[in-house]
Design brief:
Length: 454
């Protein structure tokens, strides 16, 4: 492997470029017409425009991506996250074209992307799964009957989906028919597959995920857990590691279950198994993400390991660089996603030109971003501007450091989620670690001022 094309944009493209440079590998950036001024274009060794702003005509256009790889003689492609990162067909096209896909095999992506099939794999591997349907729901009547057996509330989800689309919570029989038809229609539009499945809905769960690395030969290692419970409409906003709710005994059971599940399919590359954890500490498999996660820097800070480099090494057939050292976690890390959104207006997207941009610094502070003063935020893509990550000896120091870093982070010209994060950092429930996935729903953030808590 000598040259890697990054089939993505923004901060993750820049993140991959940095890892490649440190490994002595050449890089190719691709960009849409709207991203000509993006930093990943500037810092790559080569850059190729692959089409107009709409992602369907650029970052999701497989023929144009493969053409860019061909004309630049790239022998590998890193998909980043989002876009085509979990597209089995894209991985298969890369493989059949003789281009190394830096990630799992197409078959693994397809199997883990099918939520119903993935649950069955985990069940056979002895991983706890959420009580629910063993396959797709046939129709509304089937759903009502099964819900009666499981017990309300239940949640119906798109078998091929994610990110909150094709998902509905149902609390009684009379809600099922409307919820089923709406979720099925969303699933068809969003994922091309209307199939739904059902799970028991937990009222106050934590969202806990385990970071994994697999060599494709059956060896899988865990790099601990992340708590991703602070989220809005199933979109994560704050992540931390380790989870303040996970005890040593639970951590051992969590990581062993995740490793066992991934090893059962001889998983290759970086991957994450996500669990729901109930208030009594019981946990259940939710899904597996067959890519690098947005929040991967949290794990990197705690374990002092470069997960992107590990992905590349595994794709090159070199295995794990650090496995023989017996990786051990140190301290506590936390990440705030800084989005170009206005929290006071329901987190409405806020595209526009950044007039001032100053990032925080100091010991234990990291900022992953593609933004800068003068950068025009396009309205066509995800609103993520930057990831602010801090590390401390313990959670108390990480909290204090994050609060200080947020004060130093200056972005003017557009609205951002920085004020929202400042409120969360001083909220009593967050400070004490007493929160779950419904944390944001319980408070009227718009009516508060920075520093206040409900």
């Amino acid at each position: 492997m000598k040259k890697i094309l990054i089939a993505n944009r923004g901060e993750i493209a820049l993140r991959v470029i940095r890892a490649c440079k440190e490994l002595g590998l050449s890089t190719v950036a691709v960009y849409s017409e709207a991203d000509q001024e993006c930093l990943h274009v500037r810092f790559a060794d080569e850059a190729v425009c692959i089409g107009p702003a709409p992602s369907s005509q650029s970052y999701l256009n497989v023929p144009r991506l493969m053409s860019a790889a061909e004309i630049t003689n790239a022998d590998a492609i890193h998909p980043g996250y989002g876009f085509l990162a979990e597209n089995a067909e894209f991985a298969e096209i890369c493989e059949s074209s003789g281009v190394i896909f830096i990630g799992p095999t197409a078959e693994m992506i397809a199997h883990m992307g099918d939520k119903i099939y993935a649950k069955e794999i985990m069940r056979k591997a002895g991983v706890p799964v959420i009580p629910g349907s063993e396959g797709g729901l046939k129709d509304e009547k089937h759903a009502v009957g099964l819900a009666g057996e499981i017990g309300y509330p239940v949640i119906i989800k798109a078998a091929a989906g994610g990110g909150g689309r094709g998902m509905r919570i149902v609390r009684e029989d009379r809600e099922m028919f409307k919820a089923f038809s709406t979720a099925s229609a969303e699933a068809l539009i969003g994922f091309g597959n209307p199939t739904l499945y059902m799970e028991k809905f937990f009222e106050t769960p934590r969202h806990i995920e385990v970071q994994l690395l697999g060599d494709g030969q059956g060896k899988v290692i865990s790099l601990g857990e992340r708590d991703c419970s602070i989220q809005r409409k199933h979109q994560k906003l704050i992540e931390e590691s380790p989870s303040p709710a996970v005890t040593p005994d639970i951590r051992k059971a969590l990581t062993e279950s995740a490793v066992r599940g991934a090893a059962s399919v001889a998983y290759r590359s970086a991957g994450t198994i996500e669990f729901l954890m109930d208030s009594d500490g019981s946990f259940y498999f939710m899904e597996m993400n067959t890519r690098i996660q947005v929040e991967h820097p949290v794990t990197e800070m705690v374990y002092n390991v470069d997960l992107i480099k590990e992905q590349i090494r595994i794709a090159m057939g070199l295995g794990f660089q650090y496995a023989h050292q017996g990786l051990k976690p140190f301290g506590h890390a936390m990440e705030c996603r800084i989005n170009a959104e206005d929290p006071s207006r329901g987190f409405r997207p806020s595209p526009g030109r950044i007039t001032s941009f100053h990032v925080p610094g100091g010991l234990g502070v990291r900022v992953d971003t593609h933004a800068y003063a003068g950068y025009q935020i396009p309205p066509f893509y995800d609103s993520l501007l930057a990831k602010l990550i801090v590390h401390g000896h313990d959670r108390e120091e990480a909290l204090s450091r994050m609060g200080r870093a947020l004060e130093e982070f200056i972005i003017e010209g557009v609205s951002t989620t920085i004020p929202f994060h400042q409120k969360v950092m001083v909220h009593q429930d967050f400070v004490t670690g007493d929160f779950n996935t419904h944390f944001i729903e319980r408070f009227q953030w718009e009516s508060e001022q920075p520093g206040e808590s409900s």
